[in-house]
Amino acid sequence: MLGVDGVSMSMLPRATGLRVVLASTGQVSDDLEAVEDVLGLGPAHVAAAGSDVLLEPGAGAAPWTSLVAEFLHRSRPPWVAAVPLRDDSNVLGVLLLHAEHPTAALWSPRWLREIAGAVGLLLAMQPPTWLEATLDGRHAANRAIGMLMTTQRTDASTALAILRARAFANGARLDTTAWDVIRNGGRDDHG
After folding, report:
1. 6-127 has which CATH code?
2. C-beta of residue 98 within 8 angstroms of C-beta of residue 54
3. Domain coordinates of the chain in residue numbers?
4. Spatial contact of 94 and 44, defined as CB atoms under 8 Å apart
5. In degrees rounded to 5, what are phi and psi of residue 48?
6. CATH classification of 139-186, choosing from 1.10.890, 3.30.420, 1.10.3470, 1.10.10?
7. Phi and psi dihedrals of 109, rounded to 5?
8. 97, 7 in Cβ contact below 8 A?
9. Where are the beta strands (DSSP E) in the chain?
10. CA 31 to CA 159: how far, in whole Å?
11. Whole-model pTM?
12. 178 contacts 140 by C-beta, under 8 angstroms
């Protein structure tokens, strides 16, 4: 129906503010989300702030395009759109879509907003505790951030920056780096 090659849906839990991927349709979607997690920026982060994003194939600013190319093992990113999922007034999450050859309908932000609006409405109809309970424990980064806060004696935003920097430096996914931090008890794995 959407005419895309893949979609992922991330949510914004109120407790942490850290985007958590709830569902994705395949490896490319997973890799696009991993880049967002590692860098803490990209189309999904812009959409989480409330704006629609449409990027032509290969478009986007560095370092996002460079890391996408590395994670996808190809020279350029595909066409990407990111649309906020909203209830009446809040952004609940983001739909991140990608396609190698987007159809003309995909270039219509209005159509994409209507799809996102329907998904947002379905999510908003769930009891408030459903989302928080669903997201609890789904993201190892939350545990790793807590450990880094303790071992590094820092706040949550600095701990997240440390975690992202480690992932970026190692060319690794954020969840993989988070599990490494958890296994090391939050200690610096470089001595």
Report:
1. 3.30.450
2. no
3. 6-127, 139-186
4. yes
5. -65, -25
6. 1.10.10
7. -60, -30
8. yes
9. 6-11, 20-24, 53-55, 79-86, 91-99
10. 23
11. 0.73
12. yes
The total number of residues written for the chain in this structure: 191
**Per-residue pLDDT tens digits for 17-75:** 567 788 889 999 999 998 988 888 899 999 999 899 998 887 878 888 888 988 888 88
What is the per-residue pLDDT across 102-161, written as a single tens digit (0 to 9) for each?
A: 877 667 777 778 888 788 777 767 766 666 655 554 567 777 887 888 888 888 788 888
Contact assessment for residue 79 and residue 98, using Cβ atoms and an 8 Å cutoff: yes
Say how far apart CA 148 and CA 153 lie, in whole Å: 7
Same fold, 6-127 and 139-186: no
Type of residue at 163: L
The tokens for 60 are: 């986007």
